[in-house]
Amino acid sequence: MEYMDFKRDGSVFIITMTDDANANTITTGMLQELNLLFDEIEKTPGNAALVLTSSSAKFWCNGINLQWLAGQGDEDRRTFLHEFKRTFLRASLLNLPTVGCLTGHAFAGGAILAASMDFRTMRNDRAKFCLPEVTYGMPLGDTLMAVINNIPSPHAVQHLVLTGAQWKGVECLNNNVITAIYPEEELMPSTLQLARDLAGKNRENYTGLKYDLKQSLLAMWTGQYIR
């Protein structure tokens, strides 16, 4: 694959974004690969969990590749933005526990991708989490705001969305944006342990409870209300 690696470690699926040269920015190709892996994960039976991580120590995901997007035609841009929102909505509703392992910065669309995971872990030093749309005059829309609201703190969501603040790991932890912070060398081992613990849950029941918690997202998905 061009944009990511995929493997299974016992009960844990691991997707690693590997486009370090482009800060793991999001393009049509990246979304296509992600959805192919989601297809494989969702159809694989048995209890399991997913970790979504990055091979970069600087950027986990730096949002949409704006330079690439500017070179697309109007219809291609519209198609991409629809698929971008659809993929993040899908990620929020995957039929197993999901953990975002933030090895570096998660900005803009990268922060929203992180929000689509059930849980998030993060480096305790260099990584930052930011929704800068208010700074650059960019809208979010119903679907992306619903995904952002996966973050279990309305106060944090309001502050991040309306100020464009860049929060480091400690600030994210204190504001319930993420589950835990770790030194770089402990981040992946500790995240994998969390994922293994979650993989011990009954997958069907876990998915049902997830849907109960995310009824607005489920309604969007089943009705294909994406805007």
Task: Explain what this protein looks like in three dimensions.
With 227 residues, the chain is of the alpha/beta class. A six-stranded mixed β-sheet has the order 1-2-3-5-7-10, with helices on both faces. It has a four-stranded mixed β-sheet with strand order 4-6-8-9. It is globular.
Q: If strands are numbered along the chain, what order do they take across the biggest sheet?
A: 1-2-3-5-7-10
Shape: globular
Helix content: 40-55%
Note the run of SSEs as H and E: EEHEEHHEEHEEHHHEHEHHH
Mean pLDDT across residues: 96
Major sheet: 6 strands, mixed
Distance between the termini: 29 Å
Query: Cα-atom Rg, whole angstroms?
Result: 16 Å
- Number of helix segments? 11
Helix/strand-derived category reads: alpha/beta
Tally the beta strands.
10
Strand content: 15-25%
Low-pLDDT parts are: none
Index terms:
single chain, four-stranded mixed β-sheet, 11 helices, 19% strand
Quick overview of this protein structure:
With 227 residues, the protein is α/β, with parallel strands linked by helices. Helices cover 49% and strands 19% of the residues. Helix 1 (28-43) links the parallel strand 2 (12-17) and strand 3.
Topology:
Elements lengths: L3 E6 L2 E6 L10 H16 L5 E6 L4 E3 L4 H5 L3 H19 L5 E5 L2 E3 L1 H7 L3 E5 L4 E3 L2 H4 L4 H8 L5 H10 L2 E3 H6 L5 E3 L1 H16 L3 H11 L1 H9 L4
Parallel strand pairs: 2-3, 3-5, 4-6, 5-7, 6-8, 7-10
Antiparallel strand pairs: 1-2, 8-9
